[in-house]
Amino acid sequence: MSSKLKNFGLIGLGVIAGIAGSMQFEASAQKHTSPLPLEELRQLADVFGLIKSDYVEAVEDKKLLTEAISGMVSSLDPHSAYLDKKAFKELREGTQGKFVGLGIEVGMEDGYVKVISPIEDSPAFKAGLKAGDLITRLDSTPVKGLTLDEAVKRMRGEPNTKITLTIARKDEDRPIIVTIVRQEIRVQSVKSKVVEPGYAWLRVSQFQEPTVEDMAKKLQAIYQQEPNLKGLVLDLRNDPGGVLPGAIGVSAAFLPKDVPVVSTNGQLPDSKQTFYARREFYTSSRVATSDPLSKLPEAVKNVPIVVLVNTGSASASEIVAGALQDYKRATIMGTQTFGKGSVQTIRQLSADTAVKLTTARYYTPNGRSIQAKGIVPDLLVDETADGDGLNGLRLREADLQKHLLNDKDKDEAARKLDELEEEQRLAALEKKRKPLEFGSKEDFQLAQALNHLKGMPVQLSKSAKIESKKENTINEKKNGNGEKNGNGEKK
Predict the structure, then answer these.
(1) Is 149 in the active site?
(2) Lower CB density within 10 Å: C or N end of the chain?
(3) How far apart are CA 296 and CA 370, in angstroms?
(4) Known catalytic residue: 340?
(5) Which of 315, 342, 369, 463 is catalytic?
(6) Among the options 114, 130, 218, 340, which is catalytic?
(7) Same domain? 346 vs 440
């Protein structure tokens, strides 16, 4: 190795070791240290030196080191990430219910950006983007070769600026070109209405800092309009999650006071916690000066509830569904949820940069792990009367590369899609459907939820019927191939 390369290596090693030390500072303060792997750090420094001396053109030290940190963190799991100045700002704005962009939830598939779901009322939603669309170009830049973070950064920008997307849609022969104007996306966290006498619909589209207070106001308005409420539909479909206090507060509105809502477990002592249905776990001094749930009518603790979920229900929405299911406080209806049962903690590195790091797993009050499995509804109901619609095209946590395994059920978490689920995906591709407007007259799952609350029959999904038949066949074989008992019934 040349002396020049050695010098670069030594400088690089010093810088990298310093960064590694600073990133471990918080953990060190909690007595969770381990020796630095010096040999591997020397190799990293050697590569740093090679790039500085031999690469075709000069590269800034800051870029190399930032990308090294970013790659190191993003290699862990799909939800850990390095947040530069812009990304950190956007994260903080997002928890407050606003950001500038197109308004889509995205993932990666075959090197392209895949639309998981357009956010309601966003520019992307109004432009007709659909779940399952593959974005192949951003303006003139091919998406292939970009990381998801890089693609998202290009889609973000200043308000009122344009971006042209080239989209591949599986039911279209030609690429679709759409020009969208970036806007400040203000996600209306909570919507509600009395859908018919005695029955109301309450939708939480994302868990933000104001969510608990907004939900409390909506519930008060519902009871003012309908004092003798007979049933409530809590709609968490396509809710990607958000802040944990929001999930605790929404759960606490319907559960007895002080019961456990969710617990977490990880390496650090601070990650081993239980969160209860108490004010201190769901209020923030920035958005509430008093307990927003204190003025809710007592009837809200006993009103029959159906919680609607689908594959797009993730994280905080799964916490709510899991808690209400464990306490048998609500009937969960819809399709299996996304399965994001991991906790991300923001570790600030400087005034305007941070690392978003997965630090724990979530568990329901009964100790069920949500990760890579999700919440299985009590009643499986498809998105439409003739199938699961666009929901069948959605990705789940278990589909993501490098996803964290379910520590309670690793075999289930690693299981591939079964034949029935693949059939549902193919059926969804064959039928051209527009994104469903939740809460509308055409909302099939909402209609089934109301049927259940009224004690009327519910149209279960094809998968539920097939699984029921399989179970009956297995039981018959176990019981002597369907022998009849004394009453002439199969046993």
Answers:
(1) no
(2) N
(3) 30
(4) yes
(5) 315
(6) 340
(7) yes
